[in-house]
TrEMBL record:
Listed transmembrane segments: 116-135, 141-162, 174-200, 220-238, 245-267, 273-297
Protein name, UniProt field: DUF389 domain-containing protein
Keywords recorded for this protein, A-Z: Membrane, Transmembrane, Transmembrane helix
Extent of Basic residues compositional bias: 322-335
Amino acid sequence: MLHLRIIVPRSRTDDVVELLTGDEAVAHLAVLPGAARRPEGDLVLCDVAREGADEVLGGLQRLGIDSTGAISVEEVDICLSSSAERAARAAPGLGTDAVVWDEIAHKTGEQTRLSATYLALFTVATIIAGIGVLLDQPILIVGAMVVGPDFGPLAALSVALVRRSRAVIGRSLTALIVGFLVAIAVTVLATWLLTALGLIDRSMLSDDRPLTSFIWRPDALSWVVGLLAGVAGMLSLTSNNAGPLVGVLISVTTVPAAANVAVATAYGVTHEAVGSALQLLINVSAIVLAGVLTLLIQRAWWSRIRSRHPDVARPRPDAVRPRRPRPARPRAPRG
């Protein structure tokens, strides 16, 4: 279940209540007149089954509540209610399979900001991966994969492409390009510094590295792994299940490939730098492609599920009727 906290202008409260009561996926509806102060209005609270949340949020936005009031959504961990159970049964499909577009757009959109923390994590992860490449240590490679924040912008790019949001596409590409360039540049400098301190040397890169050589030797399996990781990552986001996402981060070699580009560039090993750059490009392309295809299939699947349940009440864009004006109250004569 999802909990909705809605601030509604008083002139639109009846429309919002009509919208919510007309959807069988909604439960626990409460209206607190005049409770909101900023912005002013009525406070409407309700719970909605996850599989019906996308329709409800869409109806509220068609009423303009997102611009004239406010809509807040929270995940409900535990809900002991027969009304909630009836709402979940009435909504078609399963909550774990539902796609709440506004939810994933908000989650992934936050990962497109070029914050200092984002760049710091990107850089730290790449340096760790660079050391792991030189030492031929998969443990360090796995740690760098988990620390790297690059899957966020990749997922945001997939969502933005499906929703045709040019602004988010631009921010996602900027976050990815700047993040990789900054991380690679700093890792090159770190490689030179560690070499000057005598902690590493060029021979470590030229030695046989059977455990990590796959990073700069892409093949057909690189596409397969990238596509599967993109599918798993997008499903973990849309189902609000963070468990599989850790496995996705570990399976994707974007950060290690960027690290190998940096280390090979620092030591002037051109063929490894080129191979690692190709591996990076393959992984990024495969993840985005798989993410877009997964979202398109999920959207088509949910459209089919809804079409099989015409008996379930669902608000449509043309079903939201304009609010009828209330008759003016007669004013008492002044004495």
